């Protein structure tokens, strides 16, 4: 029972103990089949993807699953319904794709299978591409299970968002230390069943389930969905694993557990997650993949032959090598060809801090982020300035710290123009770095407006045609699942002028 969490096992054991012998034959009907909740994603003007995954033992190889979508929470006005086959080969996951829906509307959805019904979820369509619109969007990342609780998700689930963008590190692949506040089931992930079980454990959290059920999500992965610091098909630390097989297993489990379309189902070790969607006349959202197509990190720390490092620029000329790419040439070109010049906002939903961050006056950089691929960053930002691409806002995660920054044509030149804005959100629960070090680096990075490694949380945005308002959200007690969440800072970006301002 690899895809069964400890909690479900306990629930099932208590059911069995409580059941008199004569009703034991009804056991299969009592196994929770929708224990991982529901989710929706990829809102388009006429549809979205609805997700669930059947759980528990004794599932047939193929199970018909009925879904329905309604205008109202009581499901009295059904606007679409259908049937999907949940297959054992794909972990009995369901990826339903209602189409032909009215744009810019909220809907409710639920599933039925094996005599049981799922909870209902709330989802919506995007506004039509030519319609006036506003958008309430949030970004989140890095929800390491064994380093904290999910008070941030409780808060996000109640935040009346149109859409949540999850920017990577949905699971972590490692085993847990004995003193962790809550522990990963199982050890380091190696097989498809391992990855499936880890997703099931994370998705057993009720606050995360509520956040998925509250609005449609957009998702991109970072490294930990496969392995720390992996680059393309290069593993960080060779440990006798076939990296291609590991990546294929990890990508399959990722697809199985998220609201991705059937057409995105991975083939072997390849899965396309980059793409874009338009939110009316307001915004184009570009979803990027910084892992699958990247070159290996420059100058790994000896004795390692790959992986991240923090290096002085003068010791690592490869940092400036224009041949190196973070997105891959094809995705770089796709991005350069796809900016919206008509809409006021181009939102880049990507993984990590884009602004330059040096920890020494002479230039010392972390090689896994954009600083490790500075020429590729320049190739992305230079045309933004030259073509006056409107309202470019980089959204990120990965660094376990809140950063708000100006993105500049040349970070080494104080007079260089600001060409875009950046909001890099902190982790939901993963531990952050040393705040004193971050503060010491602020003077070396004057384009940073805000930097807090000592906050867990997420960021929320209210976006209109003239301005983007940002709230930096911080969890008071990361080890308390019921903790309050506070607005730690507010910023605004004027659509006519790149660069976040304190509000
Ligand atoms: Fe992380
Ligand atoms: Ca990461």
Q: What is the CA–CA distance across the termini? A: 51 Å
- What would you say the CATH architecture of the largest domain is? 4-Layer Sandwich
Approximately how much beta-strand content do the residues carry? 25-35%
CATH superfamily of the largest domain: Alkaline phosphatase D (PhoD)
Main sheet characteristics: 7 strands, mixed
- How many β strands by DSSP? 24
Can you characterise this structure?
By secondary structure, this protein is of the alpha+beta class. The chain has two domains: 6-124, Immunoglobulin-like (Sandwich); 135-502, Alkaline phosphatase D (PhoD) (Purple Acid Phosphatase, chain A, domain 2), CATH 3.60.21.70. Helix content is 17%, strand content 27%. It has nine helices and 24 strands. The protein has helices at residues 6-18, 27-30, 151-157, 192-202, 206-214, 243-256, 329-336, 374-386, 435-441, and strands at residues 38-41, 49-53, 62-70, 78-87, 93-96, 106-113, 116-117, 121-124, 135-140, 163-166, 217-219, 275-279, 283-287, 310-312, 345-349, 364-366, 392-396, 402-408, 418-424, 448-452, 457-463, 467-475, 485-494, 497-502. A seven-stranded mixed sheet has the order 11-10-9-21-22-23-24, with helices on one face. Strands 12-13-15-17-19-18-20 form a seven-stranded mixed sheet. A hairpin with a 2-residue loop joins strand 6 and strand 7 (116-117). Helix 4 (192-202) packs parallel to helix 6 (243-256). The radius of gyration is 23 Å and the shape is globular. It starts with 5 loop residues before the first helix and ends with a strand. The model is unreliable at 12-17 and 19-25 (pLDDT under 50). The site of calcium ion has 6 residues, from loops.
